[in-house]
Design goal:
9 helices, about 20% strand, globular
Amino acid sequence: MSSKVTIIGAGSVGATIAYTLSHQNIASEIVLIDINKEKVAGEVMDIEQGTCFRDPISIVAGDYADAKDSDIVIITSGIARKPGQTRIELTQTNVNILKSITPEIVKEAPNAIYIMVSNPVDIMTYVFTKISGIPENQIIGSGTVLDTARLRCGLAEHFDIAQKNIHAYVFGEHGDTSFIPWSRALISGVRLDEYVEIMRSKGKDVAELDKEAMLEYVQKSGGKIIANKGATFYAVATSVCNLCAKILAAYDSMATVSSMMHGDYGIEDVCLSTLTLVGPKGIQSKIPMPMSDDEVEQLKASADALKSVIAQIDL
């Protein structure tokens, strides 16, 4: 596969994305850009020297001009979240950084699919959509892709079943107002409560699921990891690389990515995550997954929380 991926930001997340991509057959060219030239040069050297066991791949420490003809641009730039700090507290600082980056990268790669990873990702996706001039279908926020992965990890451990058999999602903000549409959570086509009954009838000891505890596990995982090791980067890097694979694949796939809402579930002018069709042309459409009235209200509450932050920032 001949594809070019540019990553802006060589911090823990950006560098780990570059490293993960370098060991997968997703990109043939990787460009890593950062304001800290020595840091990015060191990261590229370290990554490049570990690629001798795979097919040849080009990895360079570059400038914005080197992003020309990129298929995908991944933006990770921003100040990292500190222990005890919420994503929303990062907002204005990281918005200002994005505003300085946007005209430089858009000039060089106007046709790329953009993946926003910088936090708070829903706000950053909204800002980039508003200021970049890039068509909306080319702008994808990583959204609750990681949250959904955390949910499936937790459910797999609880039910002692492979994650690939679980179809459950996290919707809304990538943050404290996210929620799980339990009415549509399935294990191989079976609703969770029914699955417990079926497994018990087969003699398997399966405990009832504490749904509130599972949501807390999903929402608090990032903060706990930051408190324990200082930053999160492995799981988010894997999630973003999976998004890259979906974008470069022959067929469309489903993902809970963040993008602009245009009346979906009665929500307008905000970016958040719902089930979305993603593929070679970026975002194809939002998929209107039926939800209960209570779940729709939770989505609207998440949208309102994000809108209240947007109203306070300087675009």
